[in-house]
Amino acid sequence: MNFIFRGNELLVHEASLDLPDATACAVLGLRLDTLQLVLLGDPRYRTTHVPPSAEAPPGYAFRKLRALLAELGDRTALAGRAFQIAEWARTHKYCGVCATPMQPATHEFCMRCPACGLSSYPRISPAMMVLVRRGDSILLARHATYATARHTALAGFVEPGESIEDAVHREVYEEVGLRVTDLRYFGSQSWPFPHSLMIAFTAEYAGGEIRLQQEEIAEARWFGPGDALPDIPMRESIAGRLVRANLPPGSSL
Q1: How far is it, in rounded angstroms, from Cα 57 to Cα 51?
Q2: What is the DSSP string of 229-251?
Q3: Which residue in 69, 82, 95, 199 has the most C-beta neighbors within 10 A?
Q4: Cα distance between residue 37 and residue 192, in whole Å
Q5: Nearest residue to 209 (alpha-carbon basis) of 245, 169, 236, 179
Q6: Using CA atoms, how far apart are residues 242 and 53, in angstroms rounded to an integer?
Q7: Taking the alpha carbons of 196, 201, 206, 212 in that order, is the dihedral positive or negative?
Q8: CA gap 234, 238 in Å, rounded
Q9: Is the peptide bond before 101 cis (omega within 30 degrees of 0)?
Q10: How far is CA 33 from CA 25, 73, 89, 204, in A?
Q11: Quick one: CA torsion of 191, 193, 198, 202, rounded to 10 degrees?
């Protein structure tokens, strides 16, 4: 499988969503043996980025990766991994210390500087996600930075020196002014936008009134039994699974 990205778009066949074959890659000027491996030691899976000006070969189209996740089936996790590796390779061509061209290691995902020895590994950014519960109600929020954002659980990146639990308490208080308790781990998911590891929890409401951090949150409110729920994230995302696993009794989507 050849995962070819243009920005955050993946090249797929227009009719079947098949990934490009060697002929399609050649149209783009790509040699398969020069592409990054997605799985070390397995040449069947390769990935790379092409310039923003690149045109799709006949019969193919570049489509937004986020929109494709629900359609890729068993290739979803591989596509996310391929995107992160391709982006890492694209952004680590030169040493960040001395600007020498980096050289890939053969036994691990590592770019190493031959001049000063700096090693650069694929970046993974841990982020917490939490669904706050108050009795039979759940708190859903719509983020301000996305015009068409769905209502979802609260989320935020872990800061230097924090534990994941510290991040949950801080983000909930910063974004909606609430205090929480009884954190319970729900699950995790690699999320390639651009290189996150989402670590999801539930938490119980412990006090406070909703006070929005307006540059981050456009809307947040409690949804209880019998309430019609707004649009929520797709089932393929951990946010979608987290919300669906905690739906209030009698609520409808």
Answers
A1: 14
A2: P-----TTSHHHHHHHTTPPTT-
A3: 82
A4: 17
A5: 179
A6: 38
A7: positive
A8: 9
A9: no
A10: 11, 26, 15, 52
A11: -110
Residue pointed to by tokens 């694209």: 90
Residue 101 is classified by DSSP as B
- Contact (Cβ atoms closer than 8 angstroms) between residue 184 and residue 203: yes
User: Which residue would you say has higher pLDDT here, 124 or 250?
Assistant: 124
Q: Are 64 and 72 in contact (CB under 8 A)?
A: no
Mean pLDDT value across the chain:
92
Structure pTM? 0.86
- Tokens coding 30: 């790509």
How many beta carbons lie within 10 A of that of residue 57, not counting itself?
A: 18
β-bridge mates for residue 135, sequence order: none
What are the C-alpha distances in Å from 127 to residues 156, 191, 197?
Answer: 5, 10, 6
Burial of 47: CB neighbours in 10 Å, binned 0-12, 13-18, 19+: buried
Which residue type occupies 47?
A: T
Closest CA relative to residue 98, chosen from 116, 120, 86: 116
E-strand ranges in the chain read: 2-6, 9-13, 36-39, 42-49, 60-64, 103-104, 111-112, 119-120, 125-134, 137-143, 154-157, 179-191, 196-207, 217-223
Please check the confidence at residue 149 and state whether its pLDDT lies above 90: no
Q: Residue range 115-138: average pLDDT?
A: 96
Q: What tens digit of pLDDT does each residue of 152-211 get?
A: 999 999 999 999 999 999 999 999 999 999 999 999 999 888 789 999 999 999 999 999
